[in-house]
Write a structure and sequence with these properties.
Length: about 500
């Protein structure tokens, strides 16, 4: 299909793309053509053009083998890297553009191997057939700008459906991670998954076990941070994939929560995740989202039947934190992410001890101290965990948490002020002014405290000069006096200060 076969809006999208990238991509295409090779923009780079998203990372494919690619690009590129060369990929930087050039290929996994076997191909159409989904199996040849779409990717893009170029069983056998990628695209793009693809995912779910933990982690993380994570997670649970990669999630379906407010804890969890996302203020927060997803995973292990038919989950937050730490560690998440997410799971019930505000200031301080740098996320997780359908009760919970946040802010302000000290203590004031303990020391202390509040840290020498100037202005020292010197052998006694300075020192 050539560009002329596209609709007017599609042609404009392609034209806009090449207005931006032509100086780089067309120039590179001409270099490959002079070397007797073909080059095409491909995959997500083409898909995103029709979604109205054009980034600075571009994917290209070629019939040239990796060694030949290096020969062509090295004299031209600003930088070249070969981290992925064993998989046929050469990385290139040119100006602001990051390019990945991959030799026509297909990947397949041995049933007992975690590493894909790379086989090179000879045609663009063959390369596209081996890609994960039809929406990623479109290309634009360069420098001629011929649009290539042999598997109907553009139509599927318009219908927001994920299909595979060939039989889905072959696609997932080539790379089982594509099953997780289907769920990730459902989350990121809001696409539905074709029924045949869903059926293949269900039949082949156990194949995901040969994929490395790191690759699984990356897909799950992108899914969680997508715009529609419920869709992706639901797909994983319904197809049985979640049982292999995140088994804590489907097991929540067996539990009815202790308040009988929800169909099950699984649905409650997805609702909490969505409500946490709604409270984000600056883009996806992976720590908050993972904490929302994992916050109740300890319930199946702590479920107890109480008299009267009530169900309890005592200490599920502690058990859940342990389970979260174990799962995220197994997925090879960074240690700081593991620590932060599991800590939020452990703390997510703490607020419910607040009641209607009975906590002492000391208890509020402990709440803040225990949350540490996670306090803002804990605020959001706690609010998101309120999913009762009783509007009056929900509003009461939010008002109570508002009250707690207000107390935290007030205490923080008061105690931050109380931490501020003048840069000179009572003994230093006595020594500089040559005075004995008494009310005058307190006045000098208050002057220095005001100075500290007004000007911040100015250093001891500047504070000393300011103190001397204040003393002259207030008759403590003669206006033309020099700095008083302590008498030989005289040591300042510990100052008692007046009430205000003593309180400031004790705060």
């Amino acid at each position: 299909m050539s560009v002329s076969h596209l609709t007017d809006s599609q042609q404009r999208a392609v034209a806009d793309l090449f207005r931006r990238i032509a100086p780089v991509v067309d120039e590179l295409g001409e270099l490959f053509a002079k070397g007797g090779h073909r080059l095409a923009l491909v995959g997500g780079s083409v898909r995103d053009v029709f979604l109205g998203r054009i980034g600075h990372d571009l994917d290209l494919t070629t019939d040239a083998r990796p060694e030949r690619v290096l020969e062509i690009v090295r004299p031209w590129a600003d930088a070249v890297w070969t981290v992925g060369i064993e998989f046929g990929t050469v990385g290139v930087r040119k100006g602001d553009w990051q390019l990945e050039i991959t030799t026509y290929r297909s990947e397949s996994y041995d049933p007992k191997s975690r590493k894909p076997e790379v086989m090179y191909g000879d045609t663009l159409e063959g390369d596209l057939e081996r890609r994960d989904f039809t929406v990623n199996a479109m290309a634009v040849r360069v420098p001629g700008h011929e649009f290539v779409d042999p598997y109907g990717g553009l139509a599927d893009l318009g219908a927001k459906v994920l299909r595979t170029p060939g039989p889905p069983e072959r696609s997932f056998d080539d790379d089982p991670l594509r099953m997780l990628r289907a769920a990730r695209f459902a989350s990121q793009l809001g696409f539905r998954v074709d029924q045949k693809v869903r059926e293949a995912m269900t039949r082949m779910a156990d194949r995901i076990e040969i994929v490395s933990a790191e690759r699984i982690r990356d897909e799950l993380d992108k899914l969680i941070c997508g715009a529609h994570p419920r869709a992706g997670l639901t797909l994983l649970v319904d197809t049985g994939l979640a049982e292999r990669v995140l088994p804590e999630l489907p097991r929540l379906r067996l539990e009815i929560d202790e308040h009988h407010r929800h169909k099950d804890v699984y649905e409650h969890t997805l609702t909490v995740l969505e409500q946490a996302i709604a409270l984000e203020t600056s883009g996806p927060d992976r720590v908050l989202r993972w904490a929302a997803l994992m916050h109740d995973v300890g319930k199946p292990k702590t479920r107890r039947l109480e008299p009267g038919g009530r169900v309890s989950f005592h200490h599920h937050e502690v058990v859940g934190a342990q389970m979260t730490r174990k799962r995220l560690s197994a997925l090879r998440f960074p240690k700081d992410v593991v620590a932060d997410v599991s800590r939020l799971v452990e703390l997510h019930l703490r607020f419910h001890g607040y009641g209607t505000g009975e906590w002492t200031d000391s208890a509020v301080r402990r709440y803040v101290r225990d949350a540490g740098h996670l306090l803002d996320r804990l605020h959001k997780l706690t609010r998101a965990d309120c999913t009762t359908r009783n509007k009056r009760k929900a509003q009461a919970l939010w008002r109570t948490y508002d009250h707690l946040e207000q107390r935290i802010a007030r205490l923080a302000q008061e105690e931050e002020l109380a931490k501020i000290r003048p840069e000179l203590n009572g003994n230093e004031i006595q020594e500089i002014l040559g005075i004995k303990p008494g009310p005058l020391v307190g006045k000098a202390y208050r002057f220095l405290l005001d100075l500290r509040l007004d000007r911040g840290v100015i250093g001891k020498e500047a504070a000393r000069e300011a103190l001397l100037a204040w003393a002259r202005e207030n008759g403590v020292l003669p206006a033309d006096s020099a700095e008083p010197a302590a008498e030989p052998g005289e040591q300042a006694e510990p100052t008692e200060q007046d009430d205000s300075s003593a309180q400031a020192e004790q705060a």
